[in-house]
Amino acid sequence: MKTQVGIVGAGPAGLMLAHLLHLRGIESVVLESRDRPYVEKRIRAGVLEQGSVEMLEELGVADRMHQLGLVHHGIELGFQHTRHRIDFPTLTGRSVTVYGQHEVVKDLLAAADQRGLPVMFDVTDVTLHGLDTDAPCITFMHEGEAGRLECDFIAGCDGFHGICRPSVPKGVLTTYDRVYPFSWLGILADAAPSQNALVYMNSDRGFALFSMRSPTVTRLYLQCRNGESIDDWSDDRIWNELHTRLQCSDGWKPNEGHITQKGVTPMRSFVTEPMQHGRLYLAGDAVHIVPPTGAKGMNLALSDVKVLAEALSRFFSRGSVEMLANYSAICLRRVWKTQRFSWWMTSMLHRDPDGTEFDHRRQMAELDYVTSSTAAATALAENYVGLPILFS
Ligand SMILES: Cc1cc2nc3c(=O)[nH]c(=O)nc-3n(C[C@H](O)[C@H](O)[C@H](O)COP(=O)(O)OP(=O)(O)OC[C@H]3O[C@@H](n4cnc5c(N)ncnc54)[C@H](O)[C@@H]3O)c2cc1C
Q1: What pLDDT tens digit does each residue of the chain (392 aa) get?
Q2: By CB count within 10 A, which of 2, 43, 175, 384 is most buried?
């Protein structure tokens, strides 16, 4: 089998890249290790920056998002039992859309079917070859048969646990990371959201986040200890803790409902540089992870592939290698600014188990500043709605 771009991974990065390339007349094949139902049901991120919304519109796959997504014009920051609104349109003229990552993936897959874009599921033993040559290839097993995909370029969009990043020879990549001393316990509940803005709450008992996925489904998170077992958290314990942490002086609280999903996710910041080696280009979680506090993971994956699609287009249409050579440097400018924002939101809102009273008072001062200064609120808002995606 031959194609121009072999894409490993059918997450948001891999599927979006396949569509962006198709729009520019470039062929690709996507290889995915999981089956389609698993990929379409995997619950993860849920906030789309305006730039991500515009990308889906540009691809003509935004109809369901416009129908089912919830446009949010702000968030609320809570501390000392009071919520303070950060209003995005007033501060930036932009907004975000709440729409589940699995819905984005479903839409991209449905459009791939319609457009005849090849996506192969249940592929195993994916191995990269010839990354330092002009003719790399990917070998794999599919339905009991050995496959070989010859390509001009390989896009490693296979997430944090994928095989593309480890395929780069030792000594080429440098990793920078931070593991946080807490995790997130997340639930999905069949309960109508009790208001239409996300609430990020710094409480004495730790961070809590109120969010939603649809007019009938609430998504809630609690800061918990690393290594905590979900079995120790009965539904009653979760609701009690949520009510305690989110308690507000105006009486607002989340609606309760049947919990349909729960899990614990560790928090880390992680960047590997450079984001390319030879003819392999890494994008999304394969090369960087952000803590979810800034709602950036999926958005960052989409912005990487927007840059990559443009660089590949310049190569295939006019033989220009300049942007491909600068792919890593271009992406890393945005990646590091997004890392900074995600780290800052995380540090401002969570209780560090080793923190002191000084740290707590500094956090309160920071929240007071962000919610009372237009300049500080604007800085938060412009990062939250998404920094521009630059091509240089
Ligand atoms: C539990 C969880 C909760 C999250 N919650 C949030 C959130 O609330 N907000 C937020 O902004 N972000 C969140 N994130 C992060 C966000 O979901 C990711 O940033 C986003 O999925 C990145 O997209 P991606 O396409 O780069 O990687 P992925 O979505 O990980 O996709 C990679 C794909 O590659 C496939 N793959 C892996 N190995 C191979 C292989 N060897 N061969 C072929 N295919 C392979 C995988 O099956 C997967 O389909 C969360 C992540 C997790 C894990």
Answers
A1: 999 999 999 999 999 999 999 999 999 999 999 999 999 999 888 999 999 999 999 999 999 999 999 999 999 999 999 999 999 999 999 999 999 999 999 999 999 999 999 999 999 999 999 999 999 999 999 999 999 999 999 999 999 999 999 999 999 999 999 999 999 999 999 999 999 999 999 999 999 999 998 999 999 999 999 999 999 999 999 999 999 999 999 999 999 999 999 999 999 999 999 999 999 999 999 999 999 999 999 999 999 999 999 999 999 999 999 999 999 999 999 999 999 999 999 999 999 999 999 999 999 999 999 999 999 999 999 999 999 999 99
A2: 384
Which residue minimizes the CA distance to atom 30 of ligand 1? 159
Rounded Cα gap, residues 224 and 237, in angstroms: 12
Q: Which residues are CB-neighbours of 197 under 8 A, at least 6 positions away?
A: 72, 74, 75, 76, 85
Residue 21 CA, ligand 1 centroid: distance in Å: 20
Distance from Cα 159 to the centre of ligand 1, integer Å: 5
Instruction: For ligand 1, say whether the CB of 29 is within 6 Å of any of its atoms.
Output: no
Phi–psi pair at 329, nearest 5 degrees = -60, -40
Residues with active-site annotation: 72, 200, 292, 296, 384
Q: Measured from the CA of 12, which atom of ligand 1 is nearest?
A: 25
Report CA torsion sign: 166, 129, 162, 338: positive
The CATH fold of domain 5-50+98-176+268-352? FAD/NAD(P)-binding domain (3.50.50)
Q: Is 262 in the pocket of ligand 1 (CB under 6 A)?
A: no
Q: Are 264 and 230 in contact (CB under 8 A)?
A: yes
- Please give the single-letter amino acid code of residue 161: H
